[in-house]
Every structure is written in structure tokens, then in C-alpha cells.
């Protein structure tokens, strides 16, 4: 399992299923560090409408482990250089 | 419905808790011995595990792309009772992936077709057909008769219903899903844990992982978005793998796990979501399998969390609370354009034929794969996703909106056609938002009902997918 390494000062973000369709990408690099709470805003800026259509019901992982997006008052998580984020929307068909 | 031992039906928990009582200590018949020998000699299997499989009851919800491959291996492994529920009939477009059906059984109920196939594979299990859809009214009655449930369905409403009922009835659930080139697999509620229990880490339910469904207009079916056979096949086979593992090791039995999950070496307390994706463009693609560590049962989960016994009950589900269809939304057109901005496929054809229609641009917003099978003469392919992205870029960074059109002709009216007439309406709105209608001077028109309507109203030979 290899993913192209993000360039220095960046993290890798992987898109699955509907997230791939929406961004027309499987993977890209974004500038690190970034607060997890701001991740959706950064993506919304790049892909208008992605929050409502994809992100709000997707699950997010950092380095292959599930994370909750911190709500107001909850402790934030920092996405660091070299981290791998994945955006995983539910798939329903079969 | 074929009747099995009523006692076992009434209390699935009895199964395999006491070898004497239900036959985990009996001798295998010669036929069983021959048939299952290759898997029984695998380390950690053996006779007891095989008898646990034989004494188990598994329910497949869905007899399609996931259910077919999953049921093959579960039947082959010798699980004693196999229930299958699905109301669809076999169609030619199913056969590239639904390997339990056959060309000779097109038109037959999928459940009957799959059972025909499975009986041929292994006549020993008891097969129980349900040729109607799973519903909030019947779900608990059916699910309660089984030890383990496989979610092989194709829509979010049923997925939430199945997970909720499994939580309430303490049934483990192996859930898989697949579309286009990717698939997901997760074992939920295993070992089965009573609703609302949170004193330790317990396994999640579907709602713990996916709190809410995607908006209705973004939910795609295999019929709309497409599906690669091997991708969904792999997920179905992986489901069977988990099912056999759970049953052979007795993880489905609440009463056989007296230890707390944390002390139990066999627990699945590290729930894992397996993601498979398959890139048609990259040969040995970098994103093949990923195993993601999921969180345990969530305190605030609607179905299994702290206050869930107040929010979710079997009686509630039966009487329509929650309303699964409403929760998952009903697919409606996002925009409905006024009639002067729309034209039927037939009207478009007639005005074009009679020469009344001036020079114009016809944009076809289907994906290029759909477009490759045929299009209206003169149509230019401009996939909807690309259109949205280009529109967003112009909105964000500015620039000449005219540039996003694949053909340049600033005066000519624009007609937009899509597959079924939903995307095209949204496309018309987007183009107008960008000012391409020149303040109303240039017409931008939606062709009602898309290429589906074109086939129905104008050209019956059109290859519509």
C-alpha cells in the first residue's frame, strides 16, 4: 500500500466514492499544518458545494484511523505534514 | 416459508451454547464429512467449528451483486439455514455481476433463481425464500429468526432499517456496499451488545459510522452510476469470509461471550472498515485496499447510544417511527424551471426538423461513457460534473463565463439535455447564474426528460443506458 508522498509542508488527502466524483481526483496534497475543524472549509473553498453534497455525511480518517470532526468547545486536532487524510462517503448500492 | 426446528427459531441463543443440546458434539454425516473436509482441516476450524456453521442461520438481505457471491460461499461452507430476501426479478443487466443467476432464469424472482443455484452447489442447507421487500413492518419478525445478518441491499433507507433492527435484536451485521469502482465492508454490532450499553467499549452500529445519509439527489444506484462486477463481487466474497469466521468461532452468540469484550481475546473491538478501490486508469494502482480503524459505539448514537432505548424501539419501527424513507429523502428535481425555459424532446425534434429552430448549441451533460453510445445530432458533450466545477471556478476566481462552453457562439441559444432531465435543469440554472443568458436576451432551454424522453418520444432505437 503506497501513496505518493506529499511534498514538504503538505499532507495527503484521499477521496473515495462520491468524493472522487465531486473533486474529479483520487488524491491531492494540501498545505500542512491545518486544524481538522477547518478542513471542511478549506475543501469547500476549492470545491463549492462539497460540504453539503459529500462532506457532511462522510467519515474522515487521519492515518487510517477514524476521527470525529471537533465541534465547538471540543479539542481540535492538528493535521500535520505528511499525514494521510481520507474522505469516505457512505456507499449504499450493491 | 420452510419451517425449521421451532425451538431453534424461538431462541437462536441456544445454538452452540451447549454441545449436547444442539449437536456440536454429534458425528458428521459421511456427506458432510466429504463435502466440508477441505475447510475443516484448516487450523482453528475442526469439527466443532463446522458443526457451529451447520447449526447456524444466516439471512441475506438482497440477492444481487453482493448477495450472490456472498451466499455462494456461505452455502458452500455448510451453514445450515440460509434465508434470502429480495423482491426483484432477474434482468439481463444483472448478469455481469450477479453470479448466482443465469441467462436461463431471466424473469424469475431473484430469490428463487439464487436458491436454484445454491441448491445445486450444496443441497444440504435449508433455504428459506422471502420474495417480498424487507419493510419496517416485517423486519423484526424475519431478522429475529437468524443468528447473523448480511446487508447486501442497494439503498440507504433499508441499510438504516437493518442496522437499527439488528441493534434492537442483538444480531451481528456484516455490511457491504459497492458502486462503480469502489466498495466498503464493515462488521457491525459484533459481538452483539444490548442497546444503550456504554460502560465499556462496544462495537458500533451503522449509524455510529454514518450518522446521516447523503442528500437524496446525490444517492446513485448501480443502474445510474454503473458498477464493475469484480469490485462488488470481491466485497460480497469478503462478506462471506467475515460471516463464516463469525459463525465458526461463535462470535455471534451473546451467551457464549461471558467475558467483557475487552477481556475477550476473540472480540472485534477494533472495528475495521475495509475500503477497496479499483482504478481503471492505473495498472497497479496505489489505492487498492485500505483497512481503517473505526471508533467504538458512540455515546450519542440514535440507535445504540446512551438515550437510544427512548428513541428507538421495535414497536416504534413497526409503526413508522423513525420514518426511514423520509430520513433518507425522496429524490426530487432540485430545481423546477418555468415552462418557457423548457421544451419536450419531441418539440425540440420537430422544430429542428422543420427548420424553425435557428442555429443553437446543444449541450449533452451526461458522462462521456454514456455519450459514447450515441447522442442527438450536433450535440456536444459537457459532463455535468465538469460544468459544475468550471462554474465554481469562474464564480471564485472570476473570468469570462463564455470560455467554459465547449463551443463558442455568444449569440446562439443554448439547449441542454441530460440522461433523465434532472441535471439539465440544474445546468440551465448554473449557466444563467454565470450570465450566459445575457440578461435574458439569449435563451437557455432545458430538454424535458433527457435522453430517456428522446428515446420514448423521438427515436425508439436510441441506445439508452
UniProtKB/TrEMBL annotation, chain A:
Stated role: Acts as a sulfur carrier required for molybdopterin biosynthesis. Component of the molybdopterin synthase complex that catalyzes the conversion of precursor Z into molybdopterin by mediating the incorporation of 2 sulfur atoms into precursor Z to generate a dithiolene group. In the complex, serves as sulfur donor by being thiocarboxylated (-COSH) at its C-terminus by UBA4. After interaction with MOCS2B, the sulfur is then transferred to precursor Z to form molybdopterin.
Protein name: Molybdopterin synthase sulfur carrier subunit
PANTHER family for this protein: MOLYBDOPTERIN SYNTHASE SULFUR CARRIER SUBUNIT
Residue list for modification Glycyl adenylate: 94
Residues annotated with 1-thioglycine modification: 94
MF-aspect GO terms: molybdopterin synthase activity; nucleotide binding
Keywords, alphabetical: Cytoplasm, Molybdenum cofactor biosynthesis, Nucleotide-binding, Phosphoprotein
Quaternary structure note: Heterotetramer; composed of 2 small (MOCS2A) and 2 large (MOCS2B) subunits.
Coiled-coil portions: none
Predominant location: cytoplasm
Localization (cell): Cytoplasm
Family the UniProt entry places it in: Belongs to the MoaD family. MOCS2A subfamily.
Signal peptide (residue range): none
InterPro entries from the UniProt entry: Beta-grasp_dom_sf, MOCS2A, MOCS2A_euk, Mopterin_synth/thiamin_S_b, ThiS/MoaD-like
Domain of life: Eukaryota
A Pfam cross-reference name: ThiS
Automatic annotation (TrEMBL), chain B:
EC number per UniProt: 2.7.7.80, 2.8.1.11
PROSITE patterns: RHODANESE_3
Domain of life: Eukaryota
UniProt-annotated binding residues for Zn(2+): 205, 208, 301, 304
Subcellular location: Cytoplasm, Cytosol
Short name of one Pfam family: Rhodanese
Gene Ontology terms describing biological process: Mo-molybdopterin cofactor biosynthetic process; protein urmylation; tRNA wobble position uridine thiolation
Cofactor, how bound (note): Binds 1 zinc ion per subunit.
HAMAP family xref list: MOCS3_Uba4 (MF_03049)
Protein's recorded name: Adenylyltransferase and sulfurtransferase uba4
